[in-house]
User: Fold this.
Amino acid sequence: MPKITFMGAGSTVFAKNVLGDSMMTPALESSTIALYDIDAVRLEESATMLEAINRNNGSKAKIEKYLGVENRKDALRGANYVVNAIQVGGYDPCTITDFEIPKKYGLRQTIADTLGVGGVFRALRTIPVMLDFAHDMEEVCPDAWLLNYTNPMAMLTGAMLRLTGVKTVGLCHSVQVCCEHLLKELGMGYDGTEQWKIAGINHQAWLLECTKDGVDLYPEIKRRALLYNEGKLDIGTFEERVKMLRGDEKPSEEDLKRLREEYDLYKEKGLHGDMVRLELMRRFGYYITESSEHNAEYTPYFIKSRYPELIERFNIPLDEYPRRCINQIRDWKERGHELTKNPLLSHTRSREYASYIMEAMETGVPTRIGGNVLNNGLITNLPQNACVEVPCLVDRNGVQPTYVGALPEQCAALNRTNINVQLMTIEAARTLKRDYIYQAVMLDPHTAAELSIDDIVAMCDDLIEAHGDWLPKYH
Assistant:
């Protein structure tokens, strides 16, 4: 049976999904699961949770704990699969720094984990740690697959694929739910018989095709999307809306409250949470995989100091990620015991790709995923050394990406504005040249639309100083 090492095991909820999935999969249920983290409390919480799930599933898996850098190599030794879910620097201090210093320059962000100045600095403090992982893996588990879930996805996965010999694929939650989310949100329903094709780059991959029974759904999608963004789409009664979005699944009390707030906001003001993506689809012709709060900061069109009215018009949640972090910390304090102290805890397999990838590699029964891989000609009008998100076949031969060809030119053009930042950030991490940090941020669409070159350089210098030892020394 395989060994699965989970890096960043203190991400308890995510560890439950990925490792709980593995324990619910016959081909993986007897795996050795090695949990690694540098936080003793969070490591213990995750171990207690997973031991309960394992015990209630017949104690088939073997669970091991490894705390601290000095034990990292032992955690990795002999692993067949390594799942990466680390966050270097955490919310406090690093995420706070990523938001507060740019704010002093008048630069506002929503999530700051994938692109923009926040994404660049998150990558600069994470790539060195992942390269350390790679050095250990090349020594103690050279044949293992690294399944990377950490953002910024394209920068980190691209760095691993270009700077190390580790077999790596990047995985995102947004690909497999993209078409379903869109169709349900527009009241068109989704039953799983729909066919769709997605390709591009992480968080900005394009729903290139969406059909059902041979019929192109895009004309109706676009008709409804226009009405939805104008506040004129009939979304039915609240009960009908819940049924459309959740099907037969019974929402939790918290989920029901959120759905009610969203429903009332649309009824009262015609606003909803996906206005940016639908506007981008209207202007560029195709729907994008990742959420509107993300894509608002990947482009120069929505968060603009000269046009403050756009924030309300497109319902853009500035400082959204810090707000989520604060809420998650509070919720964990209040409700974490429901996971960590429940002896009857069970798990139902989720839709996360990781267990399906490992199952396919173990059994040879193929599965299809949307994976982040090195381009190498897969998308012909994007750079060869870019990290792209394309359909991949997975079986005993590993992850085999499929040829896509050329994206619609306007889609490739928008992707390239993001790829420029990704490639320059990797170059900065590779060479430790400060000028490349400046250039990466200068090329960022949102930052460049708001700040002068002098302000960008000064802001980067402030961020480098504030991050201190979280970054290597740049020259």
Observations:
- The chain has three domains: 3-89+112-174+335-361, 178-318, 409-470.
- The longest helix spans residues 116-140.
- The domain at 3-89+112-174+335-361 is CATH 3.90.1820.10 (LDH C-terminal domain-like).
